[in-house]
Amino acid sequence: MGLESQRFYITQYIKNNKFNLITEFTEIESGGSDNRIMFDRAIKACKDNRATLIVSTLDRLTRRLKHIVKLRENKIKFVSADNPNCSELEIDIKICFAEDELRKISLRTRNALDAKKRRNEPLGYLPNLTSEGRIKGHGNCLGRHPGEIISKDVG
């Protein structure tokens, strides 16, 4: 799901529930990463404003159970716009499956890269390995990623 689509689902949820947008966060890091600066900022914003964290889909927030635990330990309410009535048990089960899929994706990726190495094929997309490609890629990473997180006031 692209950033525009995620923003649409969240905006619709906000309108339908008459919330006030406090701030918006866009995460660059993967939902499986432990280095989640924007995630931590979103938690702080929610705590400071006694707000609810709203995401388009649960997998855009995280694919790790420990991130859900962190939200709960910090007493942060959060909701997934695509399934706002999801129970804590359902969330835990979905995240456990997502975490398992994250491990499987990582393993498949490593296996595919190892196979390319054995065939002496270059790794990566060759046009991205030029100076122009590197500059373009760096520009794309500055603040744009489909892991959008939005904090909302629940009034």
Description:
The chain has helices spanning 3-17, 37-49, 58-61, 65-73, 88-118, 131-141; strands at residues 20-27, 52-55, 77-80, 147-153. The chain is an alpha+beta fold. It has a 4-stranded mixed sheet, with helices on both faces. The longest helix is centred in the middle third of the chain and has 31 residues, at 88-118. Residues 143-155 have low confidence and may be disordered.
The major sheet is characterized as: 4 strands, mixed
Give average pLDDT, whole number.
84
Computed over alpha carbons, the radius of gyration is 18 Å
What is the total tally of β strands? Answer: 4
Portion in beta strands:
5-15%
Find the structural class using helix and strand composition: alpha+beta
Shape: globular
N- and C-termini, Cα separation: 29 Å
Helix and strand arrangement:
Blueprint: H1 3-17, E1 20-27, H2 37-49, E2 52-55, H3 58-61, H4 65-73, E3 77-80, H5 88-118, H6 131-141, E4 147-153
Parallel strand pairs: 2-3
Antiparallel strand pairs: 1-4, 2-4
Characteristics:
four-stranded mixed sheet, 4 strands, about 55% helix, 6 helices, disordered C terminus, about 160 residues, globular, alpha+beta
What's this entry about, in short?
The protein is α+β, with helices and mostly antiparallel strands.
